[in-house]
Amino acid sequence: MPNRWKPNVTVAALIEHEGRFLLVEEDTADGLKLNNPAGHLDPGESPEQACAREVLEETAHDFVPQALVGVYLNRFTRTRTGDDITYLRFAFAGQLGTHHAWRTLDEGIVRTVWMTPDEIRACADRHRSPLLLRCLEDYLAGRRFPLELVRTDPSVLAAAG
């Protein structure tokens, strides 16, 4: 099957502190957009490991996933190229840890920002993906699933070595 369809696997973090959520503002082909700290699953890592890595790279904070909020499928067409891309997102809630102020944020990340749910809802036109709001609403509805729901076979982790 040379033309097998393969969605892009991504992870995202929902990080709440005192009623506000940590987002990143990133420079995209469509201008400055808001998103959860998020990114692609790399070879040799579990979704939980990928999420912790992406949060560190995009916010300079340690992050420990504690629950799965949901698994989401989203289709997107790139504005510049017209590429039709499907994303499979694992969204995690968890605990924000130490801030490493010396770290440089990932390329394209302009800054981090804390926003209330109402502020996030009010700027939907600035969201990088509709999954930002969908994941937020699921989190606010109390959706939390045990991390054990996502199983990573040891053969995946061995691929990193």
TrEMBL record:
<comment type="subunit">
    <text>Monomer.</text>
</comment>
<protein>
    <recommendedName>
        <fullName>Phosphatase NudJ</fullName>
        <ecNumber>3.6.1.-</ecNumber>
    </recommendedName>
</protein>
<dbReference type="Pfam" id="PF00293">
    <property type="entry name" value="NUDIX"/>
</dbReference>
<keyword id="KW-0378">Hydrolase</keyword>
<feature type="domain" description="Nudix hydrolase">
    <location>
        <begin position="4"/>
        <end position="137"/>
    </location>
</feature>
<keyword id="KW-0460">Magnesium</keyword>
<dbReference type="InterPro" id="IPR033713">
    <property type="entry name" value="NudJ"/>
</dbReference>
<dbReference type="InterPro" id="IPR015797">
    <property type="entry name" value="NUDIX_hydrolase-like_dom_sf"/>
</dbReference>
<dbReference type="GO" id="GO:0016787">
    <property type="term" value="F:hydrolase activity"/>
</dbReference>
<dbReference type="InterPro" id="IPR000086">
    <property type="entry name" value="NUDIX_hydrolase_dom"/>
</dbReference>
<comment type="similarity">
    <text>Belongs to the Nudix hydrolase family. NudJ subfamily.</text>
</comment>
